[in-house]
Design goal:
Length: 201
């Protein structure tokens, strides 16, 4: 089957596609974060929910723009949006770091390997999970101050500490990876025709 030149540079159509679906990707992250933030018992499971839903968008972008720098550009768009909305800096930093790793993990196979794209996606979402949850474990005073400045009570922060403090933090990271794997396979099933057209195996 004939596929596009994998060494081709990103063109205007690619930039538009990446921008649109990166915004959708970010919107899912933001909505899940907001809902899980309001429903405290769901908080530890937010990252696995993110990974499953966002996996469809992530894999769609890998099929539509299987080119160098596409993953990094996607993470940069999400990073910028998080900063613009005033998220704590660890979240956009984490997603940017994850995007950088994902870019270079997928690149050896020219973004046309489902396995390498899945591994890259795991790093992408793991970076986000670390950025979102690490302050709860390693910077409690800073996180409490951030929560207070955001208009929420210290009691809210205490509930979060009780949920994902200590070893549970590493369980949350493991769930993020599980969610990413499930999301990648779900995306592959739903986007089978796009994968075949892009020559992703």
């Amino acid at each position: 089957m004939k596929t596009e030149n994998v060494s081709a540079k990103l063109v205007s159509k690619d930039f538009i596609t990446i921008a649109i679906f990166s915004v959708i990707f970010f919107a899912v992250l933001f909505i899940v974060m907001a809902v899980c933030g309001m429903v405290i018992p769901l908080y530890p499971f937010g990252r696995v929910i993110d990974g499953i839903i966002c996996g469809i968008v992530y894999m769609y972008l890998r099929a539509k723009a299987p080119k160098r720098w596409a993953i990094l550009l996607q993470s940069a768009v999400c990073t910028l949006l998080f900063f613009l909305l005033g998220a704590m800096w660890t979240m956009p930093a984490g997603i940017l770091a994850g995007g950088i790793i994902a870019e270079f993990v997928s690149r050896p196979k020219a973004n046309r390997s489902f396995l390498f794209n899945t591994i890259g996606y795991c790093f992408f979402m793991l970076g986000y999970a670390i950025g979102a949850c690490a302050p709860v474990v390693f910077a409690r005073e800073w996180y409490t101050a951030y929560i207070s400045n955001s208009g929420m009570s210290a009691d809210y922060a205490d509930q979060i500490f009780a949920l994902i403090g200590g070893p549970v933090f590493f369980g949350v990271l493991a769930l993020a990876i599980v969610g990413a794997i499930v999301g990648a396979f779900l995306g592959r099933v739903m986007l089978k025709k796009h994968f075949e057209k892009a020559g992703i195996v």
